[in-house]
Structures are given as structure tokens and as C-alpha cells.
Amino acid sequence: MIYQRIRDLREDADLTQRDMARILNCSQQAYSNYELGQRDIPTDILIALAEFHKTNVDYIMGLTKTKTYYKEL
Q1: Does 50 fall in a domain?
Q2: Distance (Å, rounded) from C-alpha 12 to C-alpha 71?
Q3: Angstrom distance (rounded) from CA 41 to CA 68
Q4: DSSP 70
Q5: In total, how many domains does the chain have?
């Protein structure tokens, strides 16, 4: 589920994998591996994804269906 969520968030933002890789300061191949579940997502990348998409890590990890961005509370 985590991998589908990061893909959905990226596509909802109309970004390519290359765009996200630049934002996260990683290679396109590394980002692709995150989306495909072929590589574990490092904590710093997970946090950066949540902050960029204005959601929370729990949502990305599939622990909740709520996209609440905690910094806006």
C-alpha cells in the first residue's frame, strides 16, 4: 500500500518520477525503486515526501486513511 500511495500522491501533483527524484535529491532509479517496493524508503525520504505532499507519514505508510498534515494543526 505504501508504494501505491506515493505513486498516487506524485501523480495527483502531476509530477514525473524524475521530478520527484530532483525534489528528494535522489536518482530517478532510486525513486522508481521506492514506488515499486524494490527498495525500502529511508526515514529522511519518507519525511520529505510527507512534507512535500502536505500529508503525514502514517498516511503514506498506510496506517491511516486521513491525510491530515500535522504542521497545519
Answers
A1: yes
A2: 21
A3: 21
A4: G
A5: 1
Backbone CA torsion sign across 18, 24, 25, 26: negative
CATH assignment at residue 55:
1.10.260.40
Position 21 in a domain: yes
Residue 31: how many other CB atoms lie within 10 Å? 25
In angstroms, the CA 50 to CA 69 distance is 8
| Predicted local confidence at residue 4, as pLDDT | 92
Q: Assign 73 a pLDDT band (cuts: 50, 70, 90).
A: low
41 located within any domain:
yes
Residue 47 belongs to a domain: yes
- Quick check: 34 and 60 in contact, CB under 8 A? no
- Kindly report, residue by residue over 26-51, the tens digit of the pLDDT: 999 999 999 999 999 999 999 999 99
55: helix, strand or coil: coil
- Tell me the residue type at 68: T
